[in-house]
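Attaching the record inline, Q. Sequence:
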Amino acid sequence: MTSRTEASPDKAPDPGEPEITPGYANYVLGVLFVVYVFNFIDRQILNILLEPIKKDLGVSDTAMGFLTGIAFAAFYSIAGIPIARLADRWVRRSVIAIGLTLWSLFTTLSGLPSQFWQMALARIGVGVGEAAGSPPSHSLIADYFPPERRATALAIYASGIHFGVLFGFLIGGWINEFFGWRWAFFVVGAPGILLAIVLRLTVREPPRGYSEATASNAGAAAAIEKMPSVKEVFAFLWEMPSFRHLSIAAALTAFSGYGMSTWGPAFLIRVHGMGTGEVGSWLGPLTGVFGALGAFVGGYLSDRRGAADERWYLWLPALASLIGLPFALLFLLSPDPVFGLLAGFAPSAIMGAMWLGPTFSMVQTLSKLRMRAVASAILLFIINMIGMGLGPQAVGVMNDTVFASYGTGAVRYSLITVLIVMHVWAAVHFFLGARTLREDLLARDL
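Structure, as predicted:
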C-alpha cells in the first residue's frame, strides 16, 4: 500500500487516506509481532542444535559460545545503530522488510557450512539482517500506541521472543532427530521472505508522534524537530541517570537470559540425557507460553501501576529479577528434570520476561520523537553486546576452564554462577534507576 506518508512520513496524513483506527493499530502490532517471532526462530534455533553442530564441526564449548554470542551480537549491535538512524529518516516498514528478507536468506544458508568459519559468517549475516528488526518496530509501535498503553503493546511485541523460542526449539529439535540439523535451517529460513512482502504491502507509515497528539500537530512537531546525530542521542540519554541504570540492568538481565537460553538445552542433554526432540518439546512450550505470559503481565502491570507512579516501570523488573532467581536455581539443581522444568523453569520464565515491556517502553518515553529508533538501537547495543555477546561466551569459557573438572555437569555450575550474580546485580540497577526517573521525565522536554 503506497501512501503519502511514505514519501514524507513526518507530514500529516492526506485527508483522503484511511484513519488509523485502534483495530488497524492492533493489526500492525500483530504483523510486527509475527516478524519478531521469525526473528527469534532464526536466532535461537542454533541453541537447540548446539550439541549436534558442535560434534559435526568438531569444536569446543568456548567456540560455540563465540558462535552463539559475540559472532552474532557484535555485528547485530553495531549494524543496528546506522540502520536505526536510517529508520528515523526513512520509511520504517521498508527498513524492516529489507532486513527480514536478508536474515531469512542467511538463516537458510546456515544449513550449508562444513567448517566453523563458514557457520560464523552465515550467523553474522543473520545478525546484520536482524539489526533492522526491533529499533524501527519500537518506533512504529510508539507512534501507533499512546504512552499509557505503550508498555503493554511493546510487551506483546516482545513476547515474540518467547514464541520464537517455542517454534525454534520444537522445529529444530524434531527436524534434527529425523533429518539432521542442516534441514532445520532450510525449513525456518524461507517463510520469512513471504512475510516481508506482506509487511511491505499492508503496513502504513504513520506520522512521527502520531499517538501523542493529533496527526497534524504531531506531524508538524516532528517536521520542525531537528534530526539529531547518534552522538547527540547517546549524550541526551546517557545524561539521564535513570537511562544509565536502566540500560545496565537490562544488559545484566540479558546476560543471564541469553546464557540460559543458549546453554539450557545443553544442560538437559548432558546432565539429564534428553534428546534434542524431547528438549525442544519441553523447553519450547514452557518458554513460549510462560515467557509470553510474563512479558504481557510485565507490560500490563507497569502500565497500570505506572499511571499513578512512573517508578513502577523500573520497580517491577527489579522485583521480578529477585523473585525469579530461586525458581531458576531450582531448575538447575533438581535431580528430576520434569519437576525442575515445571516447578522451577516455568515460574522463572514468567519472571524473566517481565522486564521487557516496561524497559523498552520507558526508553521510548524518555526519547524525543526524532530519536526513537536510534534510542532503541542504543539500548539494544548495550543489551546485546553485554548480554547476548558475553552471556553465552562466559558460560562456554567456564565450562572449559573453571568447572571443567565436573565433566558433563560443568554447565550446571556455570549457569548457577551466572544467574546468582546477574539477577542480584540487575535488580540493584533497576532500583537505582527508579530513584531519578521522575526528574528525568520532567527534564526530557526542557
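Residues 135 and 376 are 5 Å apart (CA to CA). The chain has 22 helices and no strands.

More tomorrow.
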